[in-house]
Design goal:
The protein has 199 residues and is of the alpha+beta class. It contains 7 helices and 5 strands; from the N terminus they run E-E-H-H-E-E-H-H-H-H-H-E. A hairpin with a 4-residue loop joins strand 3 and strand 4.
């Protein structure tokens, strides 16, 4: 904020001069437990739109093309109460990595074609990857639904429900982003060989 009243984001930092790598985790204190009824998967879809949907400045294809030669990326993981957006990069490529990640996080592209692709991938992840190929994770999720019940915020899959996901809109995602992706709802963790100026 240019008003000077902005609260700085909470940062947990552990610098290491001996490390050639830098790890960055952006924790958003919102997850699948905040998905509204009938919109199970909104937290996951929002996170995946940020990590795999491009920014207002660059398409996801341009971002992936820039990340490939520096052997890095930006990934999302959603839990019940928290979303983790993260990446690891060699310290020599930190400025390049952060230029793109900052753009994705602060100025998402919200392109309809990216939304359709990411939404389909997420729905498929629930139906195919989780249900068909990951017995351990599926068992854990079924246990949550049995313990809490489907009416409880913890009673649904972290990825969401396939039928709900397919009904979600880009406006739903933008609303979740505006509500939860705020400075006072984030903690940033940084470790490794970053320069003092990076913090």
């Amino acid at each position: 904020s240019s008003s000077g009243n902005a609260v700085p984001v909470a940062i947990v930092a552990r610098q290491s001069d001996s490390s050639a790598l830098v790890d960055v985790s952006i924790l958003v204190h919102a997850g699948a437990g905040m998905d509204p009824p009938g919109k199970k998967g909104l937290a996951s879809l929002t996170a995946n739109m940020l990590s795999d949907g491009g920014s207002a400045t660059w398409s996801i294809q341009e971002i992936n093309a820039a990340m490939y030669p520096i052997a890095s990326g930006f990934s999302a993981q959603v839990d019940k109460e928290m979303t983790r957006l993260s990446g690891q990069v060699h310290k020599d490529n930190l400025d390049t990595w952060y230029r793109y990640v900052r753009s994705q996080l602060l100025n998402p592209g919200w392109r309809e074609q990216d939304f359709e692709r990411v939404r389909t991938q997420l729905s498929n992840a629930v139906r195919t990857s989780l249900v068909g190929n990951n017995d351990e994770e599926l068992g854990k999720e079924v246990l949550y639904s049995d313990i809490y019940g489907m009416g409880h915020p913890y009673g649904s899959l972290n990825l969401g429900h396939s039928s709900d996901i397919l009904r979600l809109t880009l406006d739903d995602v933008k609303g979740f982003y505006r509500q939860y992706y705020t400075v006072n709802n984030m903690t940033v963790g940084v470790s490794g060989g970053y320069p003092d100026s990076f913090i």
